[in-house]
Amino acid sequence: MLKSLQIEPEKCTGCLQCELACSYQAEGVFNPAISRIKVFTFHEEGRFVPYTCTQCEEAWCMHACPVEAIVLNPETGAKEVKADVCVGCKVCTIACPFGTVNYQQSTGVVYKCDLCGGDPECAKACPTEAITWVDADHTGLERMRAHAAGSGTGGAG
Amino acid sequence: MSWTRNVMRVNLTEGTIGNEPLNMEWAMEYLGQRGLATRYLMEEIDPKCDALGPENKLIMVTGPLTGTMASTGGRYSVVTKSPLTGTVACSNSGGFLGAEIKSAGWDMIIFEGKSPRPVYLYVEDEQAELVPAEPLWGKSVWETDEWLHKHHQDPLLRIAAVGRAAEQGNLYAAIVNDLHRAAGRSGVGTVMASKHLKAVAVRGTRGVGNLRDPQAFMKAVSAGKKVLAENEVTGAGLPQYGTQVLMNVINESGAMPTRNMREVQFEGAAEISGEAMHEPRKTDGKANLVTNAACYGCTIACGRISRMDQRHFSIKTSPKYWGASGGLEYEAAWALGSDTGIKDMEALTYANFLCNEDGIDPISFGSTVAAAMELYEEGVLTDKDTDGIKLKFGSAEALCKVAELTARGEGFGRILGMGSKRMCEKYGRPELSMTVKGQEFPAYDPRGIQGMGLGYATSNRGACHLRGYSVSSEILGAPEKTDPLSTEGKPALMKSVQDAAAVVDSTGLCAFTTFAWTLDDIAPQVDAACEGGWTSEKLLEVGERVWNLERQFNLAAGFTAKDDTLPPRMLKEAAPTGPAKGRVSDLHKMLPEYYKLRGWSEDGVPTAETRNRLGL
Fold first, then answer.
1. Residue A31 and residue B205: Cβ atoms within 8 Å?
2. How far apart are CA B61 and CA B506, in angstroms?
């Protein structure tokens, strides 16, 4: 069974625990600047939105890569960057409609979320369950349940 | 080891920037942040110096856990000599700037001298430069923040700045970072402006690593997060209601300072409480609170983000206040509301926005307004003095007007900007100033919470709740309940919470963790991050060392035991209502025992034995 990261921005407090866990897992340092997941703050609206790669089935980044440096991990569904193959051409960063593949000056290659090999640290670090690791076929289930709970009682879910 | 071991020294007079290694011997004795920077300050300035002269220094300092994944590990402090009190000042702030300084590779930045012209410091990792700031002088913190982000074309820049109040010499001006977090108390912003330093803008991309034992650290961090999540205060009360969870609790305890502390209970408390912030407003059906928000790495998330009713009289023609921004914390709600007798939550939110926008401490501001209201009611202040403002207790219109004037440093706002002590002295009524060592009281009446009276009298930065929070024990029952109306055992309690607070402030963690954490939860995190063998006992000793060092600074600055006292109102006028009815602060019953427990002489001076024991 494949699992997916489910993000519910309304639960996010902007604490960046996900970014710290991500950068530590990936690079052994607490560093939001190189986190694969980013929390965006919309100050005037009072909103925080975590954002990362959704691991598209037809992944534009993977298709665009001229050297096949982005490959599918069939066990996790993640599209992973092979750093030793990547030539730093950045075509994937142009192809990705969501901006979740990025170039890193210090290494000369691109980096993106690899789902930590199937046990994402961001979801484990999140204190409010704004990021959870759920059955890939049911990413909408909890939202449906919340709306269902509100229906008929006048609540908005 | 988690210190970067790099200190940036900025000489504003010469316009030079140097890099020097952190004094690791001191780091082993004082850990970081509050303690370590106080050690530097003690070494480098004369405690008798003019706080607003070039001889004073201002230190922005992180702790060893700042920038790590430890919950709440994003704090930094500003350490300097206070122009409000003349004591040592250490103001602690959250947000994201502290971690950014660390991620740029710096444990601390020491500012010395005075720039001949307005400048700001721009830091990009190891690169730093002083940039002319003439276009920013005269601008608010919010305008400065926006200008710097645009100018550097970097939305990820983290910024701390001072506003117009600081430029105009307001003595309780704050340094505001990330728009609405503040190194708020004791006028540290005034010192920054006196040096012609308008802002500090930082971009750090190096990250924080270099832990002594990474595996042990991650394990200790997870254990700590779990304790916070399962605690009633840090896991439920604070995220839901913020510090405003205390408004109704303290009011019921009869310890809610009201109308310049003439009373101890406020009839409007429920209307300005944390619960009320969740309620739909009668005017537009929307709640004041939009969401809670966290500082860097914090799994508590007590911060309030509020949006005002656009039709409120204060902002209906000012769209810039229509968006969401930093909302009322308990201290601001109390000082701007209960102490002034105002129960219009929208007006309090507006005044709080202005405090953030131009960088003033809402505690000292609200308390000074309360004193001015009493002076006005007594006929000492008249319309002629107040620019025609009818400064009556309970007047939301008056509060909004004087908040605008004080934030901008205009008209009567300049009188209020002197702080309550100097203002009351100027008008011949010093007894109406609710201050200790010149700093205004926070939101706990010492007649209803006896331990806090001792805490205010002995706090090293004047009246303050964060130097020693016995409220945890006396009201909330953590770690164990003591009777708030009794003085028994309070000297020992106060000493222990003061020492604990001093060391928590030296780590990079937030004081609010101590609602749930003891030093036994903190020590494993510090020890896994840092070399030095950090046990709870050793941390507590650091706290005691920091406390005594601060005391020595103040003694050298000219303070004596005579200054360890409370305003006559607290000592002579009994609480009129509530559980503490008929009580005054019994400070005299606690102070001698406190001195003895501290290892101080009867004159409040650390004995040679105490100094030797602590290596001072």
1. yes
2. 9
Q: What's the total number of domains in chain B?
A: 3
* Long-range Cβ contact pairs of A57-64 (< 8 A, separation 24 or more): A60/A92, A60/A95, A60/A96, A60/A97, A61/A92, A61/A93, A61/A95, A61/A96, A61/A101, A61/A112, A62/A92, A63/A95, A64/A91, A64/A92, A64/A94, A64/A95
| Same domain assignment for residues A123 and A105 | no
Contact B20, B61 (CB under 8 A): no
Query: How many domains would you assign to chain A?
Result: 2
Distance CA B97, CA B156 (A): 11
Among chain A residues, the shortest Cα distance to B293 is held by A13
Cβ neighbours, 10 Å, residue B605: 16
B80 in the same domain as B168:
yes
Chain A residues in contact with B68 (beta carbon < 8 A): 20, 30
Q: How many CB pairs under 8 A join A and B?
A: 87
Q: Which chain B residues have a beta carbon less than 8 Å from that of A20?
A: 68-69, 297
- Mean pLDDT (whole number) for B262-271: 98
The model's confidence at residue A156, banded by pLDDT at 50, 70 and 90, is very low
Band of pLDDT at residue A138, cut at 50, 70 and 90: confident
Cα separation, B196 vs B205, in Å, equals 28
Where residue A19 sits, what CATH number does that domain have? 3.30.70.20
Q: What is the pLDDT of residue A143?
A: 83
Q: Which domain holds residue B561?
A: 445-465+467-504+535-614
Of B67, B207, B297, the CB nearest to A15: B297
Query: Average pLDDT of B436-458?
Result: 98
Q: Assign B8 to helix, strand or coil.
A: strand
**Is the CB of B207 less than 8 angstroms away from the CB of A128?**
no
Chain B residues close to A127, C-beta within 8 Å: 71, 225, 229, 299, 301
Distance CA B113, CA B14 (A): 8
| Amino acid (1-letter code) at residue B416 | L
